[in-house]
Amino acid sequence: MEKSLALYAVFGKxxxxxxxxxxxxxxxxxxxxxxxxxxxxCHPSExxxxxxxxxxxxxxxxxxxxxxxxxxxxxxxxxxxxxETAGAANTLCWTGTGWAGRxxxxxALDRLLAANNVAPGDALILGGGGVARATAAVLHRHQLxxxxxxxxxxxxxxxxxxxxxxxxxxxxxWRVVVNATPLGQIGEPQELAWPLPAEGGLxxxxxxxxxxxxFVQLAEARNIAVVDGLTLLVEQAAMGWLAWFGCxxxxxxxxxxxxxxxxx
Length: 264
Prior knowledge:
CATH superfamily of the largest domain: Leucine Dehydrogenase, chain A, domain 1
Strand order of the largest sheet: 2-1-3-5-6-4
Oligomer: single chain
Order of helices and strands: EHEHEHEHEEHEHEEEEHEHH
């Protein structure tokens, strides 16, 4: 690899399932940007050391997967408003003196909720981790009351209420239901029973492999609008370019790069 190439990467464990390198490298090529994007397997205890090595090799920007989005917070030189509110950063940019953290997951979901004209009401988030907290921050901005159903329920300040996992299936006219767990992802446990939004509501799926999880399929069968994980992935990736290059990434190129996975 030429030393003149700027390096970008996605850090996480596991990381082999990530489509980010495919998307970003195709986009770099299309835009004539001298850069390369790598997958980096990284345990939380290794994050600071591996980011340091990455920087010395020419690293300029990175994405983080769970649980690294929360682990990075004490080491950031800058945080945007979404990072502060969500308590997580998924996009890093080297400023010359330190890493600046951004949350493009929030930016992506915010834009997609607006595009779907989601009305105020009650929202159910499945999961209580970093993705759930970021989701709650966006839902609150759209005047939705947030209920969290977690497999290991605990009180959290960022949700309006928390219920036991089994209570997720109790009937309720949810405006939005969000899967913020790994359930349904390739290699992860599967759930047969999923709560769904009421008619006119929105189902949001953060899992993107496969694209049509059981949650997505059940929502589609009820003619409920869906924001699937691949749509969120592409949108947050495009928004990440704002931190790295000052412009949004080429969505059409990114979608073309992941075309083989659309029917996975």
